[in-house]
Amino acid sequence: MAEGATKPQNRLARVPLSAQRIIEAALTMIDRDGLEAFSFRGLAAGLGCQAMSLYHYFPSRAHLLEALVELMIAEASDFPDSGPWQDRLRGACDAFRQSALSHAGLFCYFSLFRLNNASGMALLERYFNILGAAGLGPEAQARQVHILRSYLTGACLAETARGTGSATPVPFAEARRDYPDMMAAAAFAGAEGRRARFDAGIAVLIRGIEAELNL
């Protein structure tokens, strides 16, 4: 090596482990591979550390998953608190959907999370505030939030779920013969129309609230 030349670096400087780095790596892994393939051992391998090192930051898998849920709640909370209640409700629904689509691998877990932590309750409180601003009382608010959450969960699962079908699916020709109405409508059920169908569902919910208010 020539005099004065610097010695090549054979290894990159090791990035210190941190809770934020663990969260980001876990979310990337789950978004890519799905929650069913996620493990602390695989996460540790990706981070270049021992699995036991992760437990210093997150005592259990449930603690880490809740940290990931917190990120999804933060994304689902990205909507305005001012303006007509209809626009606020559309914004809340859109933020929820965008979070679900961004983290499809985690959404099934998120959809079953009770939102009884502080950030989850704060998000629900904002839903109730929107309906209160519309003029609904507490009982009607409770009913409509239940309907809203049921719709959002079902609609987003339909877009994000990585489920399996039957081991013996109905052949296409038989399906066209035996289930003609469904098959005729199937032409309009492609991925390109998902956003329009989602918005149509929100419009139905808003019309229902307006009808209850006699608007």
Describe the protein.
- It is built from eleven helices and no strands.
- It is mostly helical and 215 residues long.
- It folds into two domains: 45 residues, Arc Repressor Mutant, subunit A (Orthogonal Bundle), CATH 1.10.10.60; 143 residues, Tetracycline Repressor, domain 2, CATH 1.10.357.
- Helix 5 packs antiparallel against helix 7.
- About 3% of the residues have low confidence.
Give the SSE map.
Blueprint: H1 19-33, H2 40-47, H3 51-54, H4 61-76, H5 85-102, H6 104-112, H7 118-134, H8 138-160, H9 172-178, H10 180-186, H11 194-212
Q: How would you briefly describe this protein structure?
A:
By secondary structure, the chain is an all-alpha fold. It has helices at residues 19-33, 40-47, 51-54, 61-76, 85-102, 104-112, 118-134, 138-160, 172-178, 180-186, 194-212. The chain folds into two domains: 15-59, Arc Repressor Mutant, subunit A (Orthogonal Bundle); 70-212, Orthogonal Bundle (Tetracycline Repressor, domain 2).
Could you name the key traits of this structure?
single chain; 215 residues; mainly alpha; Arc Repressor Mutant, subunit A; Tetracycline Repressor, domain 2; 2 domains; 0% strand; flat
Question: What structural class results from the helix and strand content?
Answer: mainly alpha
CATH architecture annotation of the largest domain = Orthogonal Bundle
Going by CATH, what is the homologous superfamily of the largest domain? Tetracycline Repressor, domain 2
Compute the CA-based radius of gyration.
Answer: 23 Å
When the domains are counted, the total is 2
Major sheet attributes: none
Q: Order of helices and strands, N to C?
A: HHHHHHHHHHH
Helix content: 55-70%
Low-confidence stretches are 8-13
Proportion of beta-strand residues: under 5%
CATH class of the largest domain: Mainly Alpha
Count of DSSP helices? 11
Number of strands: 0
N- to C-terminal distance: 83 Å
The overall pLDDT, averaged over residues, is: 91
